[in-house]
Fold:
Amino acid sequence: MKAVELNPDDYLNWFWLGHSYYKNGQYQEAINSLLKAVELNPDNYSNWYWLGSSYYKNGQYQEAINSLLKAVELNPDDYLNWFWLGHSYYKNGQYQEAINSLLKAVELNPDDYSNWQWLGHSYYKNGQYQEAINSLLKAVELNPDNEFNWQWLGRSYNQNGQYQEAINSLLKAVELNSNDANYYWLGRSYNDNEQYKEAINSLVKATQLVPDSPEYWYRLCIAYKNNGQYQEAINSGLKATQLNPDYADNWLELGCSYCNNGQYQEAINSLLKAVELNPDDEFNWQWLGVSYYKNGQYQEAINSLLKAVELNPDDELNWYCLGRSYNDNEQYKEAINSLVKATQLNPDYAGNWLELGCSYNRNGQYQEAINSLLKAVELNPDDYLNWFWLGHSYNQNGQYQEAINSLLKAVELNPNDYLNWHWLGTSYYENGQYQEAINSLLKAVELNPNNFESWHSLGWAYCNVGEYVASIGAFIEEAKLNYNANAFYGIGYNFKYVNQYKEAIDAFTTAVELEPDNWLYWDELGKSYYLNEQYEEAVECFEKSIEIGNFNSKYDLANAYLFLEDYDNAIDSYEKCIDDINSYDDKISSYIWNNYGVALANLGRTEEARNAYANAVRIDPDNEIARDNLNNIGYSRRGSNNSGIVSGISSTIDAVNEVYKKVDPEVVKGVVDIVKYFLK
Structure:
């Protein structure tokens, strides 16, 4: 200071004063002094070099660049001029210019590790990771004891996707200096290398060293999430959002962790914050949509995922998730359109074809479903769901053998899923393989005794092999689980078949009470009354069945009237029955003509009766009752009586009795008692 007072025109006095200020960390004072030096001697490169260095230290990078450009102009052979120029460009965010300057520095002095280190930094920031690696390998060769050489080498490997090499470098960095930054990058690299436990250990160490870094907690949240430790991920994510509530990715990762932990409402709340902070990030909308989907809010899921596909229509996962949401919202056409797009973007992912097949299946397009699911099993033959849905689609398409083949594969891959066995049993049933159906359905109810549909199918399978008591038992189990008309229909059907008409009537009565608009239940109730010789009740039931829309009950109604000796109504019903059959160009049964003749004969309409009997014999020459009635019509005043009736129901009684003889009456009685108790 004294020197410049004594001789203020000597640039060296100002230079050394500036140099002293620089060394003392007084960079603004250094700048002021060195500005005077360059004013007095603008041709001395040292003045410009130290002025540039002072600007750099003072954070004035553009001014540093301007000064150092003058230094390299005056002395282009001094590597330090190029080094600090490159350093200043780096700090100013001009990475390509930094690279150019630092390449000159390493050319002039290839033995200074700092030149290589900062060249590596600049390549890294410029996204040239391989070049960064090459430079930093030279730096660690020249100075293997510098932690930053190893840290930046590790970071460069990480960004270049060489995670194991990154880990090796960063382990060396933490060995040299176990600080938070080295642990942080080591944790990130372990995470990217799918070594999640090691990532957690490293990132926990970083948060312990610097507990107020939201970035460290954010990365720890990701590592915990990837390791399936969702509660710990949530705790870390909450810490990250507390420290930095304005960073959308903190809320995204917190939301993902909540979603994976099954806390869908909390996930939604977090992800709504993420989309508020960054509405242009597709992943915020994607995960919001997924969380809504998991929460059963399918329309909200659709709205969110539509935004995701708008932001990135080339991400197949957006279309896949959108398709699933449409599917569960029962918008199958929209689901199909979305999933077709997913398969176009990624035709090699079996999951896209599986979901597309499911959508076609639910839309009733079974052949298209089959085509899609064949692709799914081709791509992933080890996923039982692909085989299950293929089998289900074959079943719905009426291709029962193909369904069986597919579902056998499903149960082989996953023998513990009751639905595989249920649909295998159903397919066997539809294919007429009733014993195989029973075996499969028994396995289904063993795995899930609370699925009433399996009991229902088992009931009909037992019925078709003549195991009526077992069939009734299965339908009772169904009714216990789901008190529905169809179960009681099955119970009644079996009781009717073993001549337990009173119990059949009770069961069918319950069925029509539960479902009064089902004509089949009224028809079967009427037949049971008929077989129990309660003809008036039978008439009421058949009339109800006809009223609902079952024209086939007209024949049974006519027979009931006949047994009531209400011949006028019997004739009317037979004629309506005959007209209906003629309108469909169908064949009229020999029994109908015979019984029509009986009714006519009992009203003295002999010629009409004779014609009816003749028609009966013509249609079935082996109908002995009709032949006897025809032969005897001229010898009886009334022509016939009810002993000459041949009923489609009555004619089966003898056959039913033969079956019933094979069923233990005591067992039937026991089942009857159970049903009576159950119906109370």
Summary: The two ends are 114 Å apart (CA to CA).
